[in-house]
Amino acid sequence: MELRILYFARLRDAIGQGAETVTVPPGVETLGQLRAWMLARGAPWTDAFTRIQPLRCALDQVLAGDEARLRAGAEVAFFPPVTGG
Question: pLDDT digit string (tens) for 16-31?
């Protein structure tokens, strides 16, 4: 399954890119499984996903939890929480 992954703020800086298209292996069907797969990819993803906590997710521009089901062609965004002021 192919997904469009977006990285924002400090996460984008840590990974060194703002977006990528990935093909995930069979068995990666939820945001939680995607996050685990991203951690297993190695540097720079492992470092960024471990160091920047908490980390929020959006699936097709809607905030979503780890249980959210992925679909082919989905857009997944990872970003640290932000505050305004």
Answer: 999 999 999 999 999 9
**Cβ-defined contacts of 57-64 (< 8 Å, 24+):** 57/31, 59/31, 64/31
Task: For residue 30, list its beta bridge partners.
Answer: 69
Q: Which of 54, 59, 51, 62 is nearest to 82 (CA)?
A: 54
Contacts 24+ apart (CB under 8 A), 43-48: 44/14, 44/15, 44/16, 45/15, 47/14, 48/7, 48/11, 48/14, 48/15
> pTM for this structure?
0.92
